Amino acid sequence: MNMTRYLAEKRKTIEKALDSYLPPASRKPTTIHQAMRYSIFGGGKRIRPILTLASAEAVGGESEVALPIACAIELIHTYSLIHDDLPAMDNDDLRRGKPTAHKAFGEAVAILVGDALLTEAFRLIATKNFRAKIKAGTVLKIIGEIATACGSSGMVGGQVVDIESTGLKLKPAKLEYLHLHKTADLIRVSVTSGGRVGGGTSQHLSALSTYGRTVGLAFQITDDIQDFDSKQDIGTTLGEKKASYPVVLGMSESKRRATELIDQAIYSLRGFDEKADPLRGIARYIRTRKQ
Ligand code: GRG
Question: 223 in ligand 1 pocket by Cβ < 6 Å?
Fold first, then answer.
């Protein structure tokens, strides 16, 4: 299958839905709504919501039914990037090729944009029209799983360990723990939520959970590899201060680990038919992606 075309089509579907779900920029107070839209529509690969749609399809469901959840996950991801960029965290000036939210709107508004996107995500899942065939209990289960993946035992917890590890020499197990929570938890729940809303069985969900965890970790490793390479290119040593795979494991072991995880992800889908081909393709794309 043509993955480039698949990803571009899904990205378009997600961006159209995000546009329809988000409050208009003209709604008062306009600053927050403009800033929310600035951050959401500032580019981005939309890999997490695409995984949600592809997972719904993989279990035989319709991706359209998964759209509110897919978009909610993109709102949460964008909130995490905005807060990660703040001066108190990574202090970044650019995100997705544009000034970060705090550079464009000030620190207070950037914090509030993150808060608003996180809250809006749960409103979206709770209120957007689900087809009657999705039971309220399924929606509740998804809300609980997403909250767990993003909270203090998930993404936020991983971010705390990341901050506390800056400048320290980490053991590989601690590094894996950090990235499992900071990055892989949200990716895993993007996948399992799609599988749930698509009507997947418990066997499907267990396989999708393994797929999500392994591609999530591989995603982080490839991100670290690119980050390390780019920092070497511009001759800084910044890349060595942050806890990252090339620093802890070395470059060739990091690449080997990423390949191993992608192989495990694809193997976890062995019980699925060709409807899971997009998930297989996304796993390969993560291994070879250039951005
Ligand atoms: C602030 C609670 C809180 C959490 C922050 C997401 C995160 C946790 C930190 C971002 C740091 C980072 C660069 C992690 C590497 C993996 C990652 C999440 C990359 C960014 O995701 P992409 O590549 O970004 O999907 P786009 O822009 O394509 O959406």
Answer: yes
